[in-house]
Amino acid sequence: MASLHLGGTMDDLWEAIKANLKDRISPSGYALWLEPLRAEGGAERELRLLCPNQFALRWVKSHYLSLIQEVLGHLEEDLQVKLSVACPGARPLPAPAASLQPPLPLPVGAKSNGGRINRKFTFENFVVGSSNRLAFQASQALARNDTFYRGVLFITSAPGLGKSHLSQAVGNFLHQNASGARIMYITAEDFANDMVQSLKTGQMSRFKERYRAECEVLLLEEVQFLSGKEKIQAELCYTLDTLMDRQKRMVFTSCYLPGEISQLSRELRSRLTGGLITPIGPPDFPTRVKILMQKAEERGIHAPTAILEFLAEHISEDVRRLESALDCLVARATLLNEPISLRVAQEVLHDLQAVERRLSVPQIQKIVGDYYQISLKDLLGRSRQKKLVRARQMALYFSRLYTQKTVSELGRLFQRSHASVVHALQTLERDRRVKPRVAEEVKFLEKKLAQAQVRRSQTEPSLHTDA
């Protein structure tokens, strides 16, 4: 680590801070965001750092400000860091109030890996469209307690389409409008871990009290994780019965419908389907444009509508990819010191590989088969040999990811039953989290498929124009 330099001018102080930070963050992060900053004297006991523009200010504030302040503390300098925009007369936009609020804590005793309600996930900043209107309105109705479906809501969608946003929006609404409500927000995996730990430590009575007696609103995410866990499913059934008898409200989320989750007991499936099931589909074009407009406004970015429409036309998978494309667009324009334009947007899309046509299921089957050195006949066959089973799981997983085929369509293409496809997908999702070797295989195949996309894009017309 570079030595720290005390005394001198503000420039000297900033150079000492940078020398320390250069060893602590990535070279690209340092070059892109910290090197361009300039120091100047501000108010008394203040180190003022000038940022190239408002976007750079927002990025440094959210990613590096706490680290800069930490290093300043090591220098034993009693100064506060203030970020400003270098352009004369320009004023930085304030950060959204939601981002300044601390996350909602879990009730005392709840165990969760990052299980906190995100204050930014509210009904007000959820973009409503034809694909999610039912889920949005149902979530609002449950939060207001004017439901007619027994206070049970099951939201299902592919990743990145907003089911977690709505689940946590219910929690945020109640936190603001029902003071003192005991809200339990937790994933199914953490519920299972909490129960196992309570069994080991002899604290099951406390576990039951926390989830049954103290909980007034249960927000349970990723229900598919309970597949095959019979004892935990049984315990959850008792918990849900108690909450239903007490007329408490419950929101469940999953990538699958209850009927698609393999090794789920009939009793638990019955309870999960006892209320309203609301699927969320991919956002249509107008909704994608509205999402980009809102995200741009939240970031204090002015982007021409035509550019946002261009992004929305070529990115349709999920909201996270839309958000990533927007950030990359602004970052590229900022670093190149040029206005946001169609050409910059085209470059971003190519970098993100968002404009390439999707790989087909046969292409994915071939790439996976080549990796595992098996034929298509073996891949689609009935052998339960370990290598063949893993190859089928991988091919199904990437086929769903790249082609957005339904479970039924994948079953037909892989000559498998609906239940077999769901079980294979869930098994791989579990194994990649707990088995490092499987995670490595997934990562390697992701690279292979990305390379295949690039090769394919090179044979197709470019999006770049002469404009």
Overall description:
α10 links the parallel β6 and β7. α9 crosses α10, α14 crosses α15 and α16 runs antiparallel to α18. The two termini are 48 Å apart. The N terminus and C terminus are likely disordered. The protein has four domains: 76 residues, 2-Layer Sandwich (GMP Synthetase, Chain A, domain 3), CATH 3.30.300; 148 residues, Rossmann fold, CATH 3.40.50.300; 68 residues, Helicase, Ruva Protein, domain 3 (Orthogonal Bundle); 98 residues, DnaA protein, C-terminal DNA-binding domain (Chromosomal Replication Initiator Protein Dnaa, Chain: A, Orthogonal Bundle). It contains 21 helices and eight strands. With 467 residues, it is of the alpha/beta class. The longest helix is centred in the last third of the chain and has 23 residues. The strands form two sheets. It has a five-stranded parallel sheet with strand order 5-6-7-4-8. A three-stranded mixed sheet has the order 1-2-3.
